[in-house]
Amino acid sequence: MSEEAKRIERIIRKHVHDVRNSVNCLDLQAALLSEVTTDPGVAETLRRMRAELTHLVKPVSMAELRHATTSLTSADNLPVSNGWFSNWSDRFNPPTGKKS
């Protein structure tokens, strides 16, 4: 890989990192607000906002993959998740189910 290509990759990675950080901050704030609100209209607006944030980060991630130096043999090698963001309360307070 040429030095110019490496430089471009570093710039892209830095910008992707910055965009993800900003989007994650917005998502975290929306998640926290959704936990404290009692207004169903506000809760629905926050849910839609978080969905839009999820859509926002996808093209950024795809741009990073397009310019990655490591080659992936197939998309099967990518980790699978239920979404780009997770609800932090679910992580720290997982729902408890009754064992049969």
Provide the helix percentage: 55-70%
The coarse overall form would be elongated
Percentage of β-strand residues: under 5%
The helix/strand order is: HHH
Rg estimate, integer Å: 18 Å
Number of helices: 3
Question: Runs with pLDDT <50, length 5+?
Answer: 71-94
The averaged pLDDT comes out at 75
Give the structural class. mainly alpha
Distance between the termini: 57 Å
Q: How many strands appear in the DSSP assignment?
A: 0
Sheet having the most strands = none
Secondary-structure map:
Elements: H1 3-36, H2 40-66, H3 88-92
Written description of the protein model:
The protein has 100 residues and is mainly α. The protein has a domain at 3-69. It has 3 helices and no strands.
Features of the shown structure:
single chain, 3 helices, mainly alpha, 0% strand, 100 residues, elongated
How would you summarize what this structure contains?
This protein is mainly alpha-helical. The protein contains 3 helices and no strands.
